[in-house]
Amino acid sequence: MLINLHTHLEGRIRPATAAELAAHAGLPGGKDWRRALQLHKPGDLSVYLEKVAASYPFFGSVDNLSRISCEAVEDAAADGADYLELRFGPATHVRPGMDISAVLRAVCAGVAEGTLRSGMPAGVVVAALRHHDWDTNIAVARAAASQAGAGVVGFDLAGDELRYPRIEPYVSTFAVAKAAGLGLTCHAAEAAPAEAARDAVNLLGVTRVGHGTHIAHDADTMRWAADTGLIIEICPTSNFFTGAIAHRSQHPVNAFREAGIPIVLGDDNPIQTQSTLSQEQRILEHTFGFGPADLQHLDRTSVRAMFAEESVKEFLRIRL
Ligand SMILES: [Zn+2]
After folding, report:
1. What is the 3-class SS of 75-113, one letter each residue?
2. Cα–Cα distance, 200 to 206 (Å, whole number)
């Protein structure tokens, strides 16, 4: 199976759609959008996120949001995925006449259409962003809560952990999402030290952490993560491009496994990294020695960890 539990809407826009929408918006024509959106060498998290932000102009209308979301689901299904959790920060895409709720409804409608067309179940994970102010993030959490059970399955904290490492400012935001019954995750210990993962669990109440690469640098936090049952969403190629690891082969996936820490897989921003989930799975096989039993274990962990409603989990358990 192929279950994607960490991927961003802004990292999945089709280059052909970008070209079409650019022409429509009167942006300079003839640009190679595959190349323009793609990362060419590793940098740090800030450089990586600037590249992701190059896609933002394409999300400026309800129709565009729905179309890009629908195509993201179709493309994941075409890559072989059995389930997709698609995350994004709706406040980024607010425009005059299109508020946070309108943005979120457009994406949920696009994801539902993509599921209808592809037959692959998918859910939306709404992200608060580290650089947004408290009022904005609370509004995002309330919009997410109002769409719980209507497409939204989870809540996340994303953005630049290098520039905004503190977790405390988002405690009340996550309380709103938690009260609505949403699954909780947080990008943590990707650019900040291992301790950030503990803060995400202890202060925000998350059950999953995105990336978590630096957890491997601290033996105490490794033991704590294993004892807690914290699930780490790993994205090896993304971590290479953000500079969290010096080379893909240095990803600590096997250190996590040996420590008894459950892992699930994501492709983060495949348009920017040029590596989809099926390729990330091949990296697990060829670089980290995953055999059929290891992949089966990954599938079982993924079904347990996903924020989907029980009927979707049951559907996938039957297929396991
Ligand atoms: Zn991410």
Report:
1. HHHHCCCCEEEEEECHHHHCECCECHHHHHHHHHHHHHH
2. 6
- pLDDT at residue 29, rounded to an integer: 62
- Estimate the crossing angle of helix 15-24 against helix 62-78, to 10 degrees: 160
The domain ranges of the chain are: 3-319
CA 274 – ligand 1 centroid, Å: 15
CATH architecture group of domain 3-319? Alpha-Beta Barrel (3.20)
Q: How far away, in angstroms, is 26 Cα from ligand 1 center?
A: 30
Residues in the chain where the model's pLDDT stays below 50? none
269 C-alpha to center of ligand 1: Å? Answer: 7
> What's the whole-model pTM score?
0.96
Residue 209 C-alpha to ligand 1 middle, in angstroms?
10
By residue count, the chain amounts to: 320
